[in-house]
Design brief:
The complex is a heterodimer of chains A (191) and B (341). With 191 residues, chain A is an alpha+beta fold. Chain A contains six helices and five strands. Chain A has a three-stranded antiparallel sheet with strand order 2-3-5. A two-stranded antiparallel sheet of chain A has the order 1-4. In chain A, strand 2 and strand 3 form a beta hairpin. Chain A is elongated. In chain B, helix 2 crosses helix 12 and helix 7 runs antiparallel to helix 10. The two termini of chain B are 41 Å apart. Chain B has 341 residues and is mainly α. Chain B has one domain. Chain B is 71% helix and 0% strand. Classes of the chains: A alpha+beta (191), B mainly alpha (341). At the A-B interface, helix 1 of A face helix 2 of B.
Chain lengths: 191, 341
């Protein structure tokens, strides 16, 4: 009888397994076809850290340098000078995204809420130098903030990173244009 | 209808040969070549589809869509893969036994094609209606052992050898219940000829209902024979890298892959012929019935593959010798007693 019971048990077990797989087979798939469609990231997911501005468009950053000191991988680079009223004026704020580890400590330690982790994460680029994001680029992304800061994170407008990158490319082109190009090639570029 | 047309075409060609006094062996060779070509095309097209189907089923079991980019529903994925595999470098390991290494895939592939000599696709559509059909299939099935042993031994690789030894043990133990289960059908039909077996099922009912135990034994043993999960110990990925075909790559590997799916198809079509009445069925054309029944078993095998985990070597032997063999023997004896009474 023991053998028979064993057989019945295994048959029942196997049948149960097949029921589960058949049910899963008939369920709709959960795959997100990534390059074509993207998941809406929750607020607080950590993409590239960006600089936030007030309503007038002025950066909230006071160039105190806490983020620069606290950054574990030391990728933040700040240059500032004293202005007329003895307040610090931010000259440069660079983040080297090739080494940034998206820990979010810069956003966490900022006493003025001037840094937030955005939802931009597709940072692939052709030049290593282009992975260093400058003050204006970080501020441009930060100005498209759509949500209040939650868990040091914000949502920004879709595609803003591409626009910032395109702006960088065109800026580089116009900078190079006077030295190298002829009028005809300039014409073709403007098309 | 198509069958009649082909038959009449053959008649008229034969008449032409006789009228012109051309030697008839030329005609025989021509028809043989055409049959082989037909079977090969059938197998290759089906294998292309089967691999796609396997990937789709495995995908959907895991809530993935499977291949989607190449062609509609990813149907051309296998074609792209085949192209990729054919373009790869042909690597033969330095320590390999060259001749045996090169021959092993062919020894594996040829029997999987030869099975189709006796499989009836439709009424009268059969390359050769051998009177020892089942015996022929059983004999060909045992060709898998030497081919895998050749592949494993010649590779000069411990994983390959382990896989080959396992496969030898597995295939020999499962051949016995497989043939005993087929014998139950033979006893009922009173013939080894596959067309007679189908005719016997048309007279009574499908042998699935008369031989339920035999069918279960046949299906389990056939899964083991075609090295499919849960009996894929010869190529157990997580233990033996890839088992007997560890050292194979590119074209030679693709032949092994082709063989695996050709065997699956052969096993399924034989199951359809022996237990579900082959091509016979109402309303639809016989060939359509044959394909439906074959693909029912193919789906069953794939469903099992993506549900059950691989079993252990000792469990494999236990299942083969201590369960399937006695059950198949008892089934055969009971069937024989009923037939005699």
């Amino acid at each position: 009888m023991g053998v028979l019971k064993n057989v019945v048990n295994s048959v029942v077990g196997i049948a149960k397994g097949h029921k589960v797989t058949l049910k899963e087979m008939l369920r709709p798939t959960v795959t997100v076809m990534y390059p074509q469609e993207r998941l809406d990231l929750p607020v607080g997911s950590r993409g590239i850290p960006v600089l936030l501005s007030d309503e007038q468009g002025n950066l909230l950053c006071t160039s105190c340098g806490v983020c620069e000191r606290e950054c574990p991988v030391q990728v933040i680079h700040i240059v500032s000078h004293r202005g007329e009223d003895k307040r610090k004026v931010l000259d440069e704020f660079d983040i080297d995204m090739s080494r940034c580890m998206f820990c979010g400590i810069c956003a966490e330690v900022c006493a003025f809420g001037a840094i937030a982790m955005s939802d931009q994460y597709e940072l692939d680029d052709f030049e290593q130098g282009d992975l260093i994001y400058h003050k204006d680029q970080l501020a441009a992304i930060g100005r498209t903030q759509r949500t209040p800061i939650t868990n040091y994170g914000i949502k920004t407008e879709v595609g803003v990173l591409d626009q910032v990158r395109a702006g960088r490319a065109s800026a580089a082109q116009t900078a190079a244009a006077p030295a190298t190009s002829t009028p005809s090639s300039e014409g073709s570029r403007s098309e | 209808m198509l069958v009649d047309w082909v038959a009449s075409l053959y008649q008229s060609v034969q008449a032409t040969f006789v009228a012109h006094g051309w030697p008839l062996w030329v005609l025989a060779v021509l028809t043989a070549v055409l049959k082989v070509a037909g079977v090969l095309v059938w197998i290759l097209l089906n294998v292309l589809f089967l691999i796609w189907l396997e990937r789709k089923i495995s995908g959907h079991v895991q809530n993935r869509p499977g291949p989607v980019y190449t062609g509609r529903f990813g149907l051309l994925q296998t074609l792209a893969d085949a192209l990729k595999v054919l373009l790869k470098e042909d690597v033969i390991p330095a320590g390999a036994d060259r001749w045996v290494f090169v021959l092993a895939p062919l020894v594996a592939f040829v029997p999987s094609v030869m099975i189709w000599v006796v499989i009836p696709f439709s009424r009268g559509v059969q390359a050769q209606d051998l009177n020892i059909g089942i015996l022929y299939v059983a004999a060909l099935a045992s060709f898998t052992v030497p081919s895998l042993l050749m592949a494993g031994w010649s590779s000069d690789n411990k994983w390959s050898l382990m896989g080959a030894l396992r496969s030898a043990a597995q295939l020999i133990s499962y051949e016995v219940p497989l043939i005993l289960a087929e014998l139950g059908v033979v006893v009922l039909a009173g013939s080894l000829r596959l067309s007679d077996i189908i005719a016997a099922q048309q007279r009574s009912v499908w042998f699935l209902f008369l031989q339920p135990v035999g069918f279960v034994v046949y299906f389990i043993a056939a899964l083991a024979e075609s090295n499919r999960t849960p009996f894929d110990l010869p190529e157990a990925e997580s233990e033996l890298v890839a088992g007997f075909n560890t050292e194979y790559s590119g074209f030679r590997w693709s032949i092994f892959f082709l063989t695996e799916y050709a065997n699956l198809l052969g096993m399924a079509s034989l199951a359809a012929t022996l237990f579900l009445g082959g091509w016979s069925g109402p309303f639809l054309p016989p060939f359509v019935w044959f394909v439906i029944k074959t693909y029912f078993f193919v789906f069953l095998a794939m469903w099992i593959r993506w549900t059950l985990p691989r079993i252990r070597v000792d469990q494999l032997m236990d299942l083969g010798w201590k369960f399937l063999l006695p059950v198949a023997l008892v089934n055969l004896v009971v069937t024989g007693v009923f037939v005699v009474l």
